[in-house]
Amino acid sequence: MANVDRTDRRRLRAPLSPWFRGTVTTLGSVAITMLGLLFVTFLIGRVMPIDPVLAIVGERASQETYDAVYEQLGLDKPLLVQFGYYLWDVLQGDFGDSLLNARPVSEDIARVFPATLELATLGTILGVVLGVPLGVIAAVKRGSWIDQIARVVALVGYSMPIFWLGLMGLLVFYGILGWVGGPGRLDIFYEDIVPTRTGMILIDSAIAGEWAVFRNAFSHIVLPASLLGYYSLAYISRMTRSFMLEQLSAEYVTTARVKGMSERAVIWGHAFRNIRVQLITVIALSYAQLLEGSVLTEIIFSWPGIGSYITTALLSADMNAVLGGTVVVGLIFVCLNILSDLLYRFLDPRAK
Amino acid sequence: MSDMTLRQWLLTDAPSSRRHARLSSFYKGWLNLRSNTMAMVGLGILVALVLAAIFAPWLAPHDPFAQDLGNRLAPLGTPGHVLGTDSLGRDILSRLIYGSRITLYIVALVALLAPVAGLLVGTVAGYTGGIVDAVLMRITDIFLAFPRLVLALAFVAALGAGIENAVLAISLTAWPPYARIARAETLTIRSADYISAVRLQGAGPIRIITRHIWPLCISSLIVRVTLDMAGIILAAAGLGFLGLGAQPPSPEWGAMISEGRRFILDHWWVATMPGLAIFTVSLAFNLLGDGLRDVLDPKDEGK
Fold first, then answer.
1. Which domain holds residue A199?
2. For residue B169, which of B236, B102, B103, B222 has the smallest C-alpha distance?
3. Which residues in chain A are contacts of B271 at CB distance < 8 A?
4. Is residue A99 part of a domain?
5. Are A164 and B275 in contact (CB < 8 Å)?
6. Is pTM, for the whole model, over 0.80?
């Protein structure tokens, strides 16, 4: 037994080097992608018709003040030099100061991001917990009524404007039925009770043992999270179904059935086992999409996350805040994509 | 030929000319699509939308911009205002009908811009290969790496709000997948024998790409465009909702939802009706896209 083990390990180690090389190549292309992403954002910032100097000094400033600020912002340097400065700052986590409140953008983002994270995480959990079984059952019972329902659910999810569905949800569950809390994260008299640790109110209140706050926060988050969960479910269930169909038509499944294995063991023990890796990729992708897709949801529900932050900044011409927010969302998006790619390489023996 | 019906002529197995063969395969595809009920429902809705846009002045019961402050926020079923009126007393039905023009305008422009740009980048990258391919595909990856809505937001912020800029922003975020598809198709076509034959006849790369590679990429692009339409409509509506797309008083559906949002709890129909319109149209595109995929691209069936 020990012998077999050793040869196995040796066999595993031998092809590790191409795998390692593959990972390095991936990381290299990621670095280039991120650089490009920063450059595009930088360019967007430069072609903005908003004069960043005017936004600081105001309309009635003298020419000297204007010029001083112009120089202070480095706008007199060549474009590539400006990009170099920008890159250097971003690498140090500095996105400049918000033009509105003169606070560092990175601080603002760190403050609002947990709200988005909390919402998207809860939405993804809902999407996975409901979407994966729905997809599996739809594939197993192909053509049945449950498959039809899964199809309609996904189709409606792909076709419905998220901000409109959010409004309708507010109208029905908050306005008419009164089952959930309204916009915002908490009712006003529950605010500032719980000390901020993670920034995620559900976790903070649970740590502090403030269950009244927890319940209130839950009643506020349940509607927007369900909304995001629905979109995640539409995507995840469709993908799960098509992965499962592929596996169920494979010969090893027929073999297992012929052997007399129970249907449950065939489905969950054999077929589902083989789609786990693909599913992780899909879930990571859907998570990334929720993090960005929550922009409209956050506005509907007055949710103080990064989506609201970017939009508010945009409407008040706060360029640093817009670009900082865009870069952060973009980087998270890229990181989640790489993470799922690396996980795929790591978990799927064929990729090694 | 004389006693052959048009139908038989179209369904023949032995076409007599190139045009005959093309018409025949088109007709067979249409028969295939026609048997798909859901796709036909989608097509029906879209035809209705186009008709509504063309005949808007005759169909709309009122001027979409005419305000009637004495009759503001009238509920559904008010005589003369079947879908009620908005906060300025404008007839919602008329605004929806005129709004279909804006929706079609946006969809048509994006459907022209993004796939053409993608086709160009993808085929050039795929056919040329080497460093050009590497650079073009890296740029594509960079744009793919951006979250779409956020990138569109940033672009609109840079360019200024308005329909044309919204179209541009959406196209800028929509072209990379087309480039990927076109490149993949090109790579499989590039080494085909008939391309070598054409090359031996002295055709240059431009002729090969435009005359021999593009036509073969079209069908997979059409499927992708139709399936993307729903996403494009939703993105345009989202930008309109944020106040970054069409500007008031234009009856753009997303902007109408945004106006109605303020009264959602008391006067729900103001925001509900335009939302239903957006939903119907993007559903129609999804249904049609699914059907087209089965007809034009049978290898993806069931996914």
1. 108-351
2. B236
3. 164, 167
4. no
5. yes
6. yes
